[in-house]
Specification:
A 4-stranded antiparallel sheet has the order 1-2-3-4, with helices on one face. The longest helix is centred in the N-terminal third of the chain and has 52 residues. Helix content is 33%, strand content 11%. With 157 residues, it is α+β, with helices and mostly antiparallel strands. It has 1 helix and 4 strands, in the order αββββ. 20% of the residues are buried.
Length: 157
């Protein structure tokens, strides 16, 4: 190599992302997010349902203690300090069967009352309900049935 000849050019790879590489990365990120988000929402909803089931069971224990102490169920949840909202922000619904008419009570698919002592339920995520569990409005309700033998989604009862 002579002193007068130019030094060979060295090519360095570029130090950044091209626009095409950036767009591919964003598309892949969007695909992953569109797959993951529904699963995330489903898990959140399962957690809220589990919380509502747990809270209905806890309220039921308070109501049973009240019945043991006073010989009757209270007229409202506020009477035992349990007037609170479900995970979706709606008040838990309660009906003492002692003074209820047959039109007020929740009913199963055979139109038999769900309980003989009291009704306690959440209207679920949509905040709507109907007395028979067969109604589409009642399918997402969290209900107490069989005098506490079942607590879960109305569609599962």
């Amino acid at each position: 190599m002579s002193l007068l000849s130019p030094a060979p050019l060295r090519r360095h790879p570029p130090h950044g992302l091209t626009l095409l590489e950036l767009m591919i990365a964003l598309v892949l990120l969007a695909v992953v997010a569109s797959i993951a988000y529904p699963s995330y929402r489903a898990q959140i909803e399962k957690g809220r349902i589990a919380q509502a089931v747990r809270e209905i069971q806890e309220i039921s224990l308070v109501l049973e203690r009240s019945f043991t102490d006073k010989g009757k169920y209270p007229a409202s949840l506020a009477d035992v300090g349990q007037a609170k909202n479900d995970p979706w922000g709606h008040a838990y619904e309660y009906l003492n069967m002692a003074g209820a008419s047959t039109g007020q009570v929740r009913k199963d698919k055979s139109l038999h009352p769900l309980n003989t002592d009291y009704d306690l339920y959440s209207m679920g995520p949509d905040g709507q309900t109907a007395k028979p569990l067969t109604s589409s409005k009642s399918q997402d309700d969290i209900v107490r049935a069989n005098n506490g033998g079942f607590v879960g989604l109305g569609k599962d009862y």
